[in-house]
Amino acid sequence: MSSSKSDRGSETRELLLVTAERLFAEHGVEAVSNRQVSEAAGQSNNSAVSYHFGSKEELILAIARRHAESLELRRTEMLAEISNSPDLRDWVSCLVRPTTQHLASLGIPSWYARFVAQVSTHPSLRERVFKEASTSRSLQQALEGMFRLIPRLPEDVRQERNDMGRLMLVHLCAERERALQAGTANPRSTWTSTADGLIDAIVGLWLAPVSSWR
Amino acid sequence: MSSSKSDRGSETRELLLVTAERLFAEHGVEAVSNRQVSEAAGQSNNSAVSYHFGSKEELILAIARRHAESLELRRTEMLAEISNSPDLRDWVSCLVRPTTQHLASLGIPSWYARFVAQVSTHPSLRERVFKEASTSRSLQQALEGMFRLIPRLPEDVRQERNDMGRLMLVHLCAERERALQAGTANPRSTWTSTADGLIDAIVGLWLAPVSSWR
Fold first, then answer.
1. Most A CBs within 10 Å: which of B56, B200, B203, as the mutation test of the A interface?
2. B140 pLDDT more than 90
3. Secondary-structure class of domain A1-54 per CATH
């Protein structure tokens, strides 16, 4: 393959990724066909998605991976900075700020937060995407550091609060991203304030007493 | 109209509501057309949805209203029981348990929690549905009672934590509903335990210190 042909190939791939992310974010994963993605990306060949990615599932994993690298880099840096911090907030920060800082770097409008929210309400895709995301080494480190600083909890409660923290992060970011685009943002909708609020809330969530356990 | 014809009309209406709720919950609001709802409900007339509800938006509001009455009744009863309680948990309970108890009453599988989650990630419908839900008198009362017992917060932080509590309730219930149907439920996935966990978490969320305010 000539170099210019290969360049065109990777440009097309990039264009399909960006277009698909926006369409999935706006309309939901199942509402958008591979054909619609190809068309919206201006590809005369309607099977461009199949050619470049194979299936919709692979396309979605490729969109997620496109962001994962930046998240991983940011989180690794933050972990190095906080080192052995005894402050729970620092560890929760490492779970929240890589996402909000990455979103801030994308400008307005970004689509990534809503894309993640849509994927995470999808019955089957969510598991594959989360499974892949959860292999991140820096994420494991941040969680371990956090768990060292919170009171011992029954395993199911720990899992439950982990779910709750993740859901707050994913869906609050999606709502803020929408507000930033629509111009209905309030002072708490900037990405830095959103992170501050999420960190306060997630710390409160982990430190909340467990009232009943069955 | 003869009485039997009117009975058949309201049976069809009910069948369309139940079918649409399931399809929207499984696939998302935009992925399902009115025609698909009519067909899945076994209606030979593909415009049955238009005939009975007008638009998809009206269909969705009708599904939400179908549940709102039970929620309102449960919440009004709970508020009467707790009367003037000085315990924050009691007021948060009035925000959480009407939903979880209603979901428990629907049996397994239910679709309502996932339906709400799908609607709440929809760019335009979410506002209409939330606006209508927020006119509930008992919801107002429960929120007012809760606000009397939490420290004074800047208005934007209060709004933010209200958003966070709502997002946790909506999306955790959707995940639990899916787990109950799939048989992957853990002990914390029963509706009573889910409510216990959510109440602990939402109390923790409201009592968390505000670390920065700009």
1. B200
2. yes
3. mainly alpha
